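Lecture notes, structural biology module. Today: joint structure prediction for complexes of two components.
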Amino acid sequence: MSHIKLELKPEQVAKIKEICKSFNNDPGELINVLHKTQETFGYLPAEVQEVVAVELNISVAKVYGVVTFYSFFTMIPKGKHPISICTGTACYVRGAEKVLDEFKRILNVKVGETTPDGKFSLNCLRCVGACGLAPVVLIGEKVYGRVSPDGVKNIIKEYEE
Amino acid sequence: METVKLTIDNKQVEVPKGTTIYKAARKLGIDIPVLCYMELHDLGVENKPAGCRICVVEVEGRRNLAPSCATECAEGMVVKTHTTRVINARRTVMELILSDHPKDCLTCPKSGRCDLQDMAVKLGIREIPGQEYAEMSTYKKDFSPSIIRDVDKCIMCRRCETMCNEVQTVGALSAVNRGFMAVVAPAFEQDLEKSPCTYCGQCVAVCPTGALTEVDHTTKAIRAIADPTKTVLVQTAPAVRAALGEEFGMKPGTLVTGKMVAALRQIGFDYVFDTDFAADLTIMEEGTELLDRLTRFLSGDKNVKLPILTSCCPGWVNFFEHNFTDMLEVPSSAKSPQQMFGAIAKSYFAEKLGKKREDLVVVSVMPCLAKKYECQRDEFKVDGNPDVDFSISTRELAHLIKEFNINFEELPDEDFDRPLGESTGAAVIFGATGGVIEAAVRTAYEVYTGKPLPKIDFTELRGMEGIRSATIDFNGLPMNIGIAHGLGNARKLLEDVRSGKANYHAIEVMACPGGCIGGGGQPLHHGNSAIIKARMEAIYREDAGKPIRKSHENPYIVKLYEEFLGKPMSEKAHHLLHTHYFSKKKDIYIK
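The predicted structure, tokenised, for the full assembly:
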């Protein structure tokens, strides 16, 4: 697993410690601690996991094991513009996979990854409740409906400064 | 005690409440096959993630099949262990496990000793349907100095994880990822070298497949033997002789010292020496250091730290270099017997032969995988030339003997070469937990009191209990001694020392349960502690049969000091036989 090496600032370390403390530094609360930490940092880089391990007095290997088991946890920071493609039933039958493939091709990333410039991250989700607009793509808070593979290029263009 | 009665395969059995179906069946002589399950009774450790599902049985009135390793018996239960439904399920489970398992059995280092292979044989697997749907993981192989991880062969039994975390408290390994990609690995899937791994090898000792194996040193050793410009010396650790026979079908606890020497000579080693000689030397140095520290401590010297910790065990050394970095001054500075042997062989003995150290190759036979790492440490090299070139495990030696067409059982007993092959009973017991400290006491007592020991055997220091302590009367001075084996126990003991709760003068620590006899390089004991006990008895039997049983009475040790070293802890002895320790704590985040 490659990751961007980062150095935590003292206040960031203090924040993680505070989260651990709010769960009484109980190793049994690992998942809750990770939830809260990811909520704060947006993702769970190795350095953050190391602090959590020391604070809860468990091995880093154990923390990493939990982070890699649950798909909710991520070690990759979200891009400036997080792209989510709905692959729920309605969107799927209306060609969401082809749309997804086009995003993958243009951005040259896989699902769950972020472009090297940190601009876009690509993820899938199941149903945003706008099945009438299938297939649906979300970028940040903005919803794009009836997206066709051909239209993907123009959508991305909107975010190129 | 509350008990329950149940029927298994039409046989009645009564067991204590809480007993699993698997154990109840064993009581009836019914061996339900298990794969992920592992029980180390004497360590109080049981690995039963109920993950593999090989051990399923049919329980009357229950809809699903039950994993017998993790299902408790209930009153009136009716269990069947070999119905058609059970047999079919077991085969399907096995086929699924095999579907994403590499099929390179012929060249796998675990071939012939693989629990997965054995299970495929037992269940009569003839084809693996559904392979085309399985996704093979493609992890990179991890080559550390001691252990090779090839986790595509991991079947997620998690035995290694239990050893690494519960028994040893090392915390290097954990289950990571999920689905076809699920394996046991260090944090962030980094190499073992970057993890807190101590190379104790207990994970290798319990791994059912080829996912965890040892680094091969035999090929290099054979090449050295074949090289006419090299003089090749071999040294054998005390625990090897008490277990090697098992690889040739002999009863656990059979002593094969003489046959082992004969075999090594037949393999072609120029000199067959004994690590036990260096163990006697260790006692001279470590024992002197102990008395020196003790005397200064008793006279009020504030710079002296007690207890003194033994430092023979390289897994233990790695452990405190990772976890007790604030206590690096506490362990004895004495090198391990393996390294003392190498240092003396390539100085004193090289001089005797009139050869340069580069022309000598020292091979060690060890019950241990951490020894492979230890002999490569930079501080044990002179201008890049290591004191000990290669370290092969007991299992590797057995393999060599077979490959060299030697009929081990028929071999006559032969004796070690001199001078580095002479040893005492004190050296032999290094192989069992409590042995090093007993050997040290035998010598330290006589040196300190100036009187001969009233009795040589200190049975109060022996046994299998994880943490033991005893007080030995040194002619009015009570010597408090602590012993721990297994790194989890060592951690407990050391934390008590650090917090001031425990008060000892000397502590012996061995990384592996049982000491070296239970080492990560020994014939696999599959969790059967009766085997470890049999090896332990063999070690004490060898000691009892030795004409000399105190290290300071070894005539060749006396001669070594007279001719070469001067006296224990002399400048030359310091230079050759002592070392220092490094912090391996990663500077990730300082608490």
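Point to remember: Residues 10-22 of chain A form the longest helix (13 residues).
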